[in-house]
Design the sequence.
């Protein structure tokens, strides 16, 4: 089989996250974004892993139309079982960073794919992230940059946040918000690349 990206069906990315769009762009896959507007707080009673799974699935289901390949993801940060969502202010971002400092937390990213005939597949990928012990001035520098405000856990590993992280066990892209290798494999398994099971002809 020779892969001709020009013949692949356009993926619908159910996300407003610029990071997720960048990653799909880097793969060279044809896609359009169609963000789902969900009340993410409504499912906060779930455990972190189940939450990432459910939200990814709900986002994909919210935008799917018959005949489309839809991709969605959701990233959740948990420190000792406690969720750290997106900080609502610089002050809350400071608090999050103090809690993450010197500790290891888990990032769960749920990934959902809906196939043209409507069947949904979803999975969760997890990574362990250890933060350096941060100095107060570093916390101040990072929080006041505002970079962490639209991100789960209040940091972005792919931007300035790269210097806060000591080590990652697992996939960097799962931390960034889209497990691209798992997505690629799922697309391959479901026939997106080969024209089988509703994929490209
Ligand atoms: C931990 C971490 C999270 N993030 C981001 C990824 C996600 O965009 C965000 C988590 O929020 P999500 O609710 O997963 O996604 P979103 O609201 O940004 O976009 P959408 O729901 O429309 O898909 O945090 C990073 O960019 N880098 C990181 O290191």
Sequence:
């Amino acid at each position: 089989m020779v892969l001709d990206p020009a013949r692949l069906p356009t993926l619908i990315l159910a996300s407003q996250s610029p990071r997720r769009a960048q990653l799909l762009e880097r793969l060279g896959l044809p896609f359009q974004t169609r963000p789902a507007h969900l009340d993410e707080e409504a499912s906060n009673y779930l455990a972190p892993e189940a939450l990432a799974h459910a939200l990814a699935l709900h986002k994909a289901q919210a935008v799917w139309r018959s005949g489309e390949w839809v991709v969605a993801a959701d990233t959740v940060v948990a420190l000792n079982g406690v969720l750290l969502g997106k900080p609502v202010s610089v002050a809350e971002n400071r608090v999050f960073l103090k809690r993450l400092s010197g500790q290891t937390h888990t990032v769960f990213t749920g990934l959902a794919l809906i196939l043209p005939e409507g069947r949904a597949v979803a999975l969760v990928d997890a990574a362990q992230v250890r933060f350096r012990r941060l100095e107060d001035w570093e916390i101040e520098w990072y929080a006041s940059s505002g970079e962490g405000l639209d991100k789960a856990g209040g940091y972005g590993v792919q931007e300035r946040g790269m210097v806060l992280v000591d080590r990652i066990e697992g996939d960097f892209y799962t931390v960034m918000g889209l497990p691209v290798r798992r997505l690629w494999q799922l697309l391959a398994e479901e026939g997106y690349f080969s024209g089988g099971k509703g994929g490209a002809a």
Strands lie at 11-13, 31-33, 69-79, 82-84, 104-114, 120-131, 165-169. The chain has one domain: 5-198. The pocket of thymidine-5'-triphosphate is lined by residues 15-17, 19-20, 35, 40, 59, 73-75, 77, 107, 151-153, 155-158, 161, 175-177 (CB under 6 Å).
